[in-house]
Specification:
CATH architecture of one domain: 3-Layer(aba) Sandwich
Structural class: alpha/beta
Distance between the termini: 54 Å
Largest sheet: 7 strands, parallel
Strand content: 5-15%
Shape: elongated
Radius of gyration: 61 Å
Length: 736
């Protein structure tokens, strides 16, 4: 009995081996090619959306009311022509800022300007203005003249607000890049109204700019007048308080160092006296230090007095000459030599004279030191006394300086505001920096609708909508579209792909080994042979996720190709709910697999043996009440084991997986499963669910066969389309 079970290790090894056999060009198609295939797949939907968008754009353009645009051009200069050469409220470089023009363009779109235009043209009282914009004036549905005056005023305000809103909705401010020019355009159904509004808009902008400038100057003058009066009173009070305080505290200022009379670096009589006494004290201290230094020298070292004394210098010179003569005599004679003794006595006398002179000079130093100390002490006492007086005056001077600073500050503020007040009086006399270059003229040609532009926009919108719809549908539709998706989406090896053929012609094409369909299944059979270590499995089952995916055709094709190689092959139709083998080969479905599973013995009479080169067939038999109960018995496994002793290969056409329990039960009796997937058919999530059920039954899955692959899908890879068409083109090229 041939019963096989797969493990996770075998399944993983199979996937790795199959992946290694895949052609390098089958991994992922080029991005542009993938997009092109998506376009081809949804070409009719794309064409329908684009055509519908263009038609909608054409209809809307023909139904639109013609609109006329009038444009006025004006220049907004950065600098005003200042006639008086006096700076105004804005700085000289205010117009040089980068935000200057942005501010001007924003002012051109301001609601206040629209209100000025509406009042100037009395648009609230012109029904033709509202008609030109396709609007109905507020209150037209009410009885004319009905209601109180308050209600009439409210109605007028509503109309004015409605007119302002229409102006803002249809005005267009278009600055000309790289220049100081700006176009003011207005669009309406009336060419004369458009020109009138555009011209009024530019004129009111100029008037608004002038009003704003003069209004700011007037406000500034009024403000400065009030401030000048306040500062004048404050200045008088602060000066009066400073003078009274100085007289009360006896503060006498010698000088004030300020150009405009402001206090700063003030010198008083007490501070000047203290400065002079402190200077004399410093000199006396220096003289005392010098006298003390001379006194402490004590004659041990030469002092300035001794060095400067002429008597000491003369005696020292004589002493040096006597010493020199004495040294010469000692070279020739003894010290007792009379001449040597005389020189020695002379030297001693000179030494005594020098000593007496130095003692006299030392006594002089002591007297000088006492005088220096006494003078220093007297000056120090006077400085300390004057410091006390100055400290009291400094404390009073702090408050005095506060009064003086307040007076100086008030004086500076008053003079600055007075000067500014005089300048502002003439600063408003300047030429306007806004000029109208071209006035708006009524147009004879409507600016909209622009039929070519609208059609182009409709075409672009249609392409965008078509692209969006295609991407959405392509993401929602999760079917496998090309062979390269199999391994990526299912983690299973691809055994091969089968081209799409017309219904009913597949069996005839399989009987001819030269057709593309036969070649495709022969390649699949070769790949299946590599999935085991003993070649093509002895028993295998072909199943799919749902019906009509090509599993019966694949079962018939594999059995036919295996039998064509000289092997004994049995094809069993195990889809007892919807049998198809009997219809393929023209047999009766009265006796078959269901009879044997139901308890009938003798499988030989159920097998239709067709001789060499053609597989044997076992049809499904009558439809049982419960196919799952029949497949769950041991008779199926026993039958496969018995048939394996008489046939080289057994191919079973299994029912689909989703919704049925038949396929998982059948998979336990065979060596492995070949899973068939229709290209662009079942979503990937459905295929994965079916594979989960197979793996739950511990079934070994050899790989996936992708069926009904269209020629446009074959272009995804580097060889699928070539394999399907190779040989056919050459046959067509051969002469008859």
């Amino acid at each position: 009995m041939l019963v096989y079970r797969s493990t996770e290790t075998d399944d993983q090894t199979l996937r790795e081996n199959a992946s290694s056999k895949e052609e390098p060009g089958r991994d992922i198609p080029p991005l542009l090619l993938a997009y092109w295939q998506i376009v081809l797949r949804w070409k009719w939907l794309i064409a329908a959306i684009i055509v519908a968008s263009v038609i909608a754009g054409l209809i809307l353009s023909l139904l639109m009311t013609p609109q006329y645009r009038a444009t006025a051009r004006m220049e907004v200069s950065r600098e005003q022509k200042n006639v008086t050469n006096v700076q105004g409220l804005e700085g000289a470089d205010a117009g040089q800022n980068l935000e200057f023009y942005n501010t001007q363009w924003a002012l051109l779109e301001a609601r206040s300007l629209a209100e000025r235009v509406a009042r100037e043209l009395r648009l609230a009282d012109k029904p033709e203005f509202f008609v030109a914009h396709g609007e109905t004036p507020e209150g037209d549905d009410e009885t004319a003249g009905a209601g109180s005056p308050m209600r009439s005023t409210t109605l007028r305000h509503k109309r004015e607000a409605q007119a302002v809103d229409l102006l803002l909705d249809h005005i267009a401010i278009s600055p000309i890049r790289g220049s100081a020019l700006v176009d003011v355009g207005y669009v309406s159904a009336s060419p004369h109204l458009s020109a009138q509004v555009a011209n009024s808009w530019t004129q009111q902008f100029i008037l608004q700019s002038m009003d704003r400038r003069f209004s700011s100057t007037s406000d500034a003058r009024t403000f400065l007048e009030g401030r000048l009066g306040e500062l004048r009173a404050r200045l008088e009070n602060s000066e009066r308080e400073a003078v009274n305080f100085a007289a009360d505290k006896g503060i006498v200022q010698i000088s004030r160092s300020s150009d405009n009379g402001a206090s700063g670096g003030d010198v008083t009589l007490a501070s000047m006296d203290l400065t002079l006494l402190n200077t004399e004290l410093v000199k006396a201290t220096a003289q005392r230090v010098a006298a003390e230094s001379r006194l402490n020298s004590g004659g041990r070292t030469a002092t300035a007095e001794s060095l400067g004394s002429q008597a000491l210098a003369s005696m020292r010179t004589k002493r040096a000459e006597a010493a020199a003569d004495y040294a010469k005599i000692l070279v020739q004679f003894d010290p007792e030599y009379p001449a040597a003794v005389a020189l020695k006595r002379q030297m001693d006398a000179l030494d005594q004279s020098i000593s007496r002179e130095e003692t006299r000079i030392s006594g002089t130093r002591t007297g000088e030191y006492r005088e220096a100390v006494q003078r220093e002490n007297q000056l120090r006492e006077r400085v300390e006394s004057l410091k006390g007086r100055l400290a009291d005056q400094e404390r009073n001077g702090i408050q005095y300086q506060i009064y003086m600073r307040e007076a100086d500050t008030n004086r500076q503020l008053y003079e600055a505001l007075l000067q500014r007040y005089k300048e502002i009086g003439v600063a408003g006399v300047s030429a306007n920096n806004i000029a109208i270059i071209d006035t708006a003229k009524p147009s004879t040609i409507p600016s909209s609708p622009n039929l070519p532009l609208n059609l182009a926009l409709a075409l672009i919108a249609g392409i965008g909508l078509a692209g969006l719809a295609t991407l959405v549908l392509n993401q929602v539709d999760e079917g496998l579209r090309n062979p390269a998706d199999v391994n990526r989406a299912l983690q299973l090896p691809l055994l091969g792909s089968v081209p799409d053929v017309e219904d009913g012609s597949a069996i005839n094409l399989l009987r001819d080994p030269k057709t593309a369909l036969s070649e495709a299944y022969f390649s699949i059979q070769s790949n299946i042979a590599f999935s085991t270590d003993h070649g093509v499995p002895r028993s295998l089952m072909v199943t799919s996720t749902r019906p009509a995916e090509g599993k019966s055709t694949t079962s018939f094709a594999l059995a036919t190709i295996l039998a064509r190689s000289g092997r004994r092959v049995l094809l069993i139709d195990a889809d007892m709910r919807s049998p198809s083998l009997a219809g393929f080969v023209g047999l009766s479905n009265e006796h078959g697999l269901s009879n044997y599973l139901a308890g009938e013995d003798g499988w030989q009479k159920l097998v239709h043996d067709n001789g060499a080169g053609i597989p044997a067939y076992m049809v499904a038999g009558p439809t049982p009440p419960s196919a799952a109960e029949l497949l769950s018995s041991d008779r199926l496994s026993n039958l496969i084991g018995t048939l394996g002793q008489h046939f080289d290969h057994i191919v079973i056409d299994s029912p689909p997986i989703l919704g049925l329990a038949d396929a998982p039960l059948l998979s336990r009796a065979v060596e492995g499963v070949v899973f068939v997937v229709e290209a662009d058919g079942v979503p990937v999530r459905g295929i994965r669910s079916a594979l989960v059920r197979l793996r739950a039954a511990q079934s070994r899955i050899f790989g996936v066969v992708l069926t009904k692959l269209h020629q446009r899908h074959a272009g995804y890879g580097y060889g699928y389309g070539y394999g399907f068409n190779y040989g056919q083109d050459e046959d067509e090229a051969k002469p008859a």
